[in-house]
Please model this.
Amino acid sequence: MELDPLLLSRVQFAFVVCFHAIFPVFTIGLASFIAVLEALSFKTGNPLWQKLSKFWLQVFAVVFGMGVVSGIVMSFQFGTNWSNFSYATANFLGPVLSYEVITAFFLEAAFLGVLLFGRDKVPQGVHLFAAIMVALGTFISSFWILSANSLMHTPDGLELRNGMYHVVSWADALFTESFAYRFAHMALASFLTAALVVAGVSAWFILQNREFDTNRKALSIALWMLLILAPLQVVVGDFHGLNTLKHQPMKVAAMEGNWETGTGVPLLLFAIPDQEAQTNHFEVKIPKLASYVLTHDWNGEVPGLNEVTPDKQPPVFIVFWAFRIMVAMGLLMVLFALWGLVLRYKGRYYQSNRFLQGLRLMSLSPFIAVLTGWVVTEAGRAPWLIYNQMTHAEGLTPSLTGGMALFTLIGYIVVYALVFSSGVYYLLKVFRGGVEKANRPHEQEEVERPKRPFSAAHASLEGDQ
Amino acid sequence: MEQPFDLTLIWAGIIAFGVMMYVLMDGFDLGLGILFPFAPDEHHRDIMMNSVAPVWDGNETWLVLGGAGLLAAFPLVYAVFLPALYIGVFLLLAGLIFRGVAFEFRFKAKTSKYLWNWAFAGGSTVASFAQGAVVGAYIQGFETENFRYVGGALDWLTPFTVITGLGLVAGYALLGSTWLIMKSEGEVQQWAYKLAPRLLMLVLVVFAVISVYTPFVDPFVKARWFSGFSAIWLLPVLALYCAYVVFSALRKKQEGMPFVATMGLFLFTYLGLLASKWPYMVPPNYTLWDAASAFESQLFLLLGFLFVIPIILTYTAWTYWVFRGKVKAGGYH
Model:
């Protein structure tokens, strides 16, 4: 069997980036949540806020550490597997990715240490300032990454000379036409992730009747966040979709499973897209709704996949289903937000077992939504690496063979599996320790211990002590 | 060139400085990992790990910064080295990840400690070997056409790069042992005193082999060194002098000097290497100016680097200052 280096490299990149993305999307939202807790603590002086902050800071520390480790591979993969792409875009991508690294290091050097270990050593105001700066820093970091990504979707501000792009306008290249939508969509996704994880974990504590008053407060904040953000995300997502329709109509056609340009296009609830036959099987549809959603006119014209030749179409099945899963997660979030509101009016959002158990499961939903969302946007850009300018095949490392790509694909799967099963296992221990353990003075304050993010967490790897 | 000043040279300086910082600083903590399996008992290992725990990840900062900086300032290096060293880069990253995670979890582990010991030792050794092989591959040069690497997956793996790989493993182990002399006392220090001279001998032998071998591998290097007598001969002389200082400091049981002189040995060897290849960055075909990115891109990023490098240096110095002095036993039981 001939191994295809292109396919294997895409699978490898998708695998590594998906594994990595879980962590930053969580830390970005969680950093803001912690900043809010610190601000509440500063303002009210109620010790309950600090108790919560201490616990969630430990979670933050572990997730942040795993994000850094998994991110290292990313910065080298551009060169190993996509060297033609890296070389062609280096004038833009190089500085932008470097600025992300600079932001992250500056953040870690200047403020993370104070936030994690400085609570008793600096005035409370300084500690709050550090919390805000860390939250802000995670956003600046994601600004650079999303700016780089947006350029691949809606290239601008560059000029191709002798096989290398040159930046003619930094402003245009950094703030391309899809950037604002992408950034808003991701920022909300991060907040939602934090809200749902906090809600799920707090619900779990409440079910066990542990630190009831403290965890109820956290649950309450998380539910308010969910109530505001989940519907807002639907609106922002819609705008993002319309922006995509304008710039990448074939991606939207794949999302809708729409093979032929037409008016009054139905919205498909279910279908098995068949790329070879260029049609769908087993369609379940709502007439004219896709036209209405995309053009705000029941008989509006919606572009179909037949506008390009099959080799220029994205993989429809993947994009179609990833999109549906993401939307389903989003709607579930809205549903839970409303359910929470109803229960709150009855004054028993912390009493309904069914609701709390549901929230526990819902803590997985933001991760599923984020990953499928990225699959939609990235696979939907195929076959383009830089939209309408460079295909995946053109961006690939020319010397790469299928065997090499397979070797590292398996290698990264093994490394990540080992490393992250340990990481997640440890994270679950921190959860199990809960607010109580995070606030227990630990007997041996180790003077010589390194001040690493992980050392902010006190759980042991084995046993419960 | 119509630009007011040559940013490419400035960037070459920054990258060379970054690589040197990385080699010296991550070198000694990788070295401790290499020595890990040879330590007599768990107490020694605790001390070894404690001695670098506060600083090791700061040390690796330079690697990530260097990688990103290379893409921005010398994209050709990034786009040729990484594909050419594909398998080696994977081993390097996997090794660094394993040891990084081992660092975090060994502190938290009790019964599974031995597993993390092996992850730490294995990861450190593999990563060090891979780095040494990269140096060897750089000396060998790369098969390129039209700014693309066109060679095979394992072209980099030759007897020569195996020797440079082993050479760096021995060199890092030496750095690690002299660091340990400086940071420990009692039986741990005695153990390190015993190791260091043997490692130094090993390093000198490997360096001698490489020095003799290199001119045969690369006629360019031969011409550089043997066409007339030049000032660059000062570099190996200074390197040898440093080796002598290490030896005598070890004999006199000095504590700080062996480490400092070993750093000198590394520095002058490194400068010798740069002098051998100057101005070729992707040998044998491309100089640093061929490999450079656009002026405006180099300028855009330079502003950020000028801002962040002093901060990192200050932060690093501060960390070393805070954790100065001997590592005490125990610490985290």
Summary: The first helix of chain B runs from residue 7 to 35. The mean pLDDT of chain B is 90. Chain B is about 75% helix and 5% strand. Chain B touches chain A through 70 residues (CB under 8 Å).
